[in-house]
Amino acid sequence: LSSVPLQMLFYVNGIYYIFYFLATLAMIVYKSQVFSYPDDFLAPDLALLFIMAILEVLRLHLAFCFLRGSKGNLTEEEAPLGLSLVITVGSVLLSVYFLVWQTYVLQADVIINAVLLFTYGLESVLKVIAIAAFV
Prior knowledge:
By secondary structure, the protein is mostly helical. The protein is 85% helix and 0% strand. It comes from Aramus guarauna.
């Protein structure tokens, strides 16, 4: 009953998030150099990016080793997938922050956040389907 598309999406999301993190970090550095980035906003933007990275590690990479995400998918357990789904909500909120509320939003920010939100949405739908199949 485990979902092969969900398992593939876990892998793709892991690879994409590395690109997302590096691109967002580079854009924050770029914006701080090119624009008059207020010092009061630079630190929170960087802190939220690193918090998001920690959530992704919990959501994806620990999922392969311990409780959540793909392990729940492979072992056909509802609780780990449900917990991974809850952590996804936090990642979605942080992605929306970087899409809408960060100090400067470039077109590149819009594109990479739109892709990330799309993969989160698709992954969430597949998790719900997998949980329903396991029950």
